[in-house]
Structures are given as C-alpha cells and as structure tokens.
Write a structure and sequence with these properties.
2 copies of one chain form a homodimer. Chain A is of the alpha/beta class and about 270 residues long. Chain A folds into 3 domains: about 90 residues, D-Maltodextrin-Binding Protein, domain 2 (3-Layer(aba) Sandwich); about 80 residues, D-Maltodextrin-Binding Protein, domain 2 (3-Layer(aba) Sandwich); about 80 residues, ACT domain (Alpha-Beta Plaits, 2-Layer Sandwich), CATH 3.30.70. Chain A is built from 9 helices and 15 strands. In chain A, strands 1, 2, 3, 4, 5 and 11 form a 6-stranded mixed beta sheet that branches. In chain A, a hairpin with a 7-residue loop joins strand 13 and strand 14.
Chain lengths: ~270, ~270
Amino acid sequence: MIFLKVSFLGPATSFSHNAALKAFPEAELVEVESIHNVFDTVESKEAEFGVVPLENSTEGSVTSTLDLLLSHNVFITGELSIRVVHCLLAKSGIKKIEKIYSHPQALSQCEKWLRKNYPKARLVGSSSTASAAEHTAKLDNAAAIASKQTAPKFGLEILEEGIQDLDFNETRFVVIGLKHAEPASNNKTTMFFALKDKPGGLFDCLKGFKDSNINLTRLESRPSKKEAWNYVFFVEFEGDQTEPRVKKAIEELKKYTVLVKVLGSYPKAGE
Amino acid sequence: MIFLKVSFLGPATSFSHNAALKAFPEAELVEVESIHNVFDTVESKEAEFGVVPLENSTEGSVTSTLDLLLSHNVFITGELSIRVVHCLLAKSGIKKIEKIYSHPQALSQCEKWLRKNYPKARLVGSSSTASAAEHTAKLDNAAAIASKQTAPKFGLEILEEGIQDLDFNETRFVVIGLKHAEPASNNKTTMFFALKDKPGGLFDCLKGFKDSNINLTRLESRPSKKEAWNYVFFVEFEGDQTEPRVKKAIEELKKYTVLVKVLGSYPKAGE
C-alpha cells in the first residue's frame, strides 16, 4: 500500500473531514485552516492530494474553490458527494441564543429556518462549520450550525437536527493533485476558458461541444480577477479529454478564447 | 416632486447606503438589516424602491441577491456602479488585532492583502461592512474592513486605506421596484430561465439571442432551490424587452425552457 497524505479544511468533524475520510479511508489526513491552504499543501507537495468543496446543491458554487482552481497549478483527479445535515449546537443549558456561528455557506443553506426560528440572532460567518462549533463551546449566548459529529467533539448539545432549508442537501467535493487521473471512457471533464471580447462569444464557444454531441452538465462564470468585469467560464461535461470528439471540441473552442485549461478528466461520483 | 421611500442594507455608511444616496439623492432612505428585508419592504410597499448589490468586479455575484430576485415578485428598474475602496478600521490605540470583521464579500475582496498582513487573524463575517465597524467599536482586539466614511460614524481610526486586492474594485447595484421602467432603445435587459432537462439545452437557449444578433453581456447560473443539482440561468443583454428582435429571441427561448422571467429593461449605468 502506498502511504498518502491528504489535506482538508479542518478542524476534524468538518464536512470536508467527512469527505476526506470517505475519499481516502486509509490515508494520513492533514487538517489545515483554509481552502487556500489545502491548495498550497498540494502545490508544495506537503500533501499528495487535497479534498475541497466545489458546490452545494442548495447554495451553489463554493466560489473560493473556483478561484483557487484558476490561480493554482493543480488538477482535479476525482469527485465525491456527501449528504449535508446541519444541526444547531450549543453549550448545555444555555438560556439565550444571541449569535449563531457557522460557515457562510451553511448559514445560507439554513437561511429560511434561521429567519423563522431565530429572527433576532446575529449571524456570524466562520472559516468552517467545525471551527464555529469549537468557538461556540466557549460562549454562553451563542449556537453553531455544524455536523452532528461535531457535538461530542466540542462538548456541545444538539438543540435541533436537520435544519437545512432543503431536506436533500448535498455538497460535491473534488480531489486535487499534481497529476491527471487515468483516462477512462466514462470519465467526466472539468475545464475553464476566457472569451475573446466579441459579440456572440459565449454562443460560439459552446458550438464545438454541440457539434461533437457533448452535453455540458454545468456552466459557471467567475470574475477573471485580472480585469474588472471580465469573466472566466467553468464547464463540465461527460467525456474524457483524450477522446477524439472531446479533443475536437476543445480545438474548436480555442478559436474563440484567449485561455483554455482542462482541470481534469476523472471518474464520476457513484450514485 | 414625488416623495419616495427607498430601502437599503444598513447601517448608514455601508456601501449600499452610498449607492442609495447616489441613486436617490432626494428620497427618504430607510435602513434595514438584510438584503432580504430590502426585498420585503419593496414587495409589501413599505418602500417604493430598494437598492441592492448585484455583483462586484473582483468577487462576482452577490448570490443572495440573485436568489431573492428568483423568489420575490419584483422588477429591476435601474442600475448604478460605485467604486469600492476598503479601509482597515479599529479603535484608537489598540495593540493587537486578533479578529477582523467584515461582510464576507469584503473579506474576499481583500483576501490577498489579509493573508499577507494579518495571516494569523481570525476572519469573521458580518451582515454588512458598516455593522462590522459598529461591532468593532466595542472591541480591543479587533479591526473591521469598511468604507472610509464609516470611521468617524463609529469613532474608529483608519489604520490603512485601499486594501482591496484589485485597485479597480466596483460594485454594481440594482434598483428594485414593483413596476417595469419605461421602455427605451438604449436599455439593457436582465432575465432568468430554467432549462428543460435535455442534452445541448443551454446551447439551444442561446441560439435565439445569436439569431436576433443580441449580445449576452453576462450569464450566471444558480441552484433552482427546488430540486437538487437543478439550475436557473441569469442573462443580461443590450436591448429592451419591447423591441421586436428581443421579443423574438424570448419566444425562441421559451421552446427550450420551463420557466422564463424578464426581471426588467432599464437604462445602463453611466460610465
């Protein structure tokens, strides 16, 4: 067995931790303080792989991860989804909840529930759900939104379980590394591109995919961070970057773009 | 003169406040505690208009505003952009900065600067930049990222000015109301649609715009929040919804979608 180090956004019991355990049950897991640090540990080879959240079914893209995929020289080598059940946690016996801490994505995933049940509470964003719980353990007037497993870890009580607004709430994580995954006919591919500034540009970019009968399963735009009001588009589709029809679509795409990068072709998550 | 009430995300001196002052210099401005409340006050007619942030040139869409445009029955009647210069503010004479408070969008806009200058500080998300400053005024170990005008309002010192990662940093705000703006040939239009679930769906949706020679200036996807992994697309283009070529493109679009809503045609912001 090859001994692997895999980094994730900690502390332990965060949803990223659950995802890293599921993806790499035998690896040495290295907790770091931010998604940025996950990318840094992979790029500097302190860890062979990193596990980072890419999007949530309720709240959408984790934009910081998309931006880090743009700025770092890493590839996507795998994906997995995990069910996210949020709990309201607090120190045992507290009388009032004036503040509720969590990751901003988690606060958004529970927004309706919070507005209904704690309309007066101050919502405070933290770097992860587990760090919110850790912080709350020191406070007498606050609660945290985090995973069930977080409660015993920080000595908190579960006040309510399953408070996310949509019952079906899943986060999709990707595995990042320095090498592309093995080609396979049932892989999916993630890539990004930047348009030439000309009318109809996006339509022209999608034409090559249509002509090659490639179905885009996702399209997302992000600011380029190089020039104001200039965007980069992320696309995902079923197919491997080594397939002739995919190569052809990418060649066609290059005519209309100033930048194209294939982030990776990798096996789809199991259902 | 007609007397107008206009709501915005407060407290006063927030960037939303600056935008509301610029858009409605003569109106009675009503500060509310969340972007959600801006929509509610407009929908319930407590305010004739609301001013909400839609996207930032560095950090991208304000996703909560996009989601509220989906869920509320309001129209976009105007837009404006304001330059956003972030400052680091704190109580006079503090010795250590262990925490830095701001709106999550502002923390992201200053991410590189923060990593370089305060790598150890805990970053804490607040409901607005001005509320972060207000909160910091009570603390001896914390700073806030907010506008320059916020400093005198809450008795804070400006430790550093212009800390955003990209010098050119602009936020685009839209005005929401219950009626469409007047048609005009140089208007722009914002709308959203949801695809039928079929291969090549997005390409088909864009074809009508291409055929009518309409240049999409923006395309953004968001989770539908009705079904997991199901998306709604926001598009923007130059043209008014009453123009024949725009009507034709929208009719074509309807063939490939299960939902189409024109959020509004309105004058472009001045350069």
